[in-house]
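User:
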Amino acid sequence: MRKLILLLFICIGGATYAQENWGDLKKNNLTIKEIPPVWPGCSGSIKELDTCFNQQLSSHIMSNFKYPVQEYKKNIQGLVVVSFKINTEGFVEIKGVTGGNKGLQEAAKTNILKIPQLTPGMMGGKPREINMRVPFSFKTNK
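Assistant: Predicted structure:
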């Protein structure tokens, strides 16, 4: 009978110990890396993809930058910030535009909407929306 009680105590005590070590979620941290959106033609490591994306986005903005004629003639200047997301299909969706006047805002928005379809950002093997903000500085040299 003593052996049975001792065996029972060891089993219950062992189960309690195992639950404490394996059941504590604070000890089991899982890190999932986010993969940024990929611009067409970019490849490499996550860091290289991110660098390539930033370079391509800067190039795109500079090559598609158009100062609205009316605002330029009136010497209207300002900083416009476009908030947008790259959705799970890789397309740009404008979330908001702030600063400047309507003409400057439309020019900045049009520039961002010309971004080509991208490979969407990923997390845990699933496409994920990525939020972004881009500032546009409209200045005249008059």
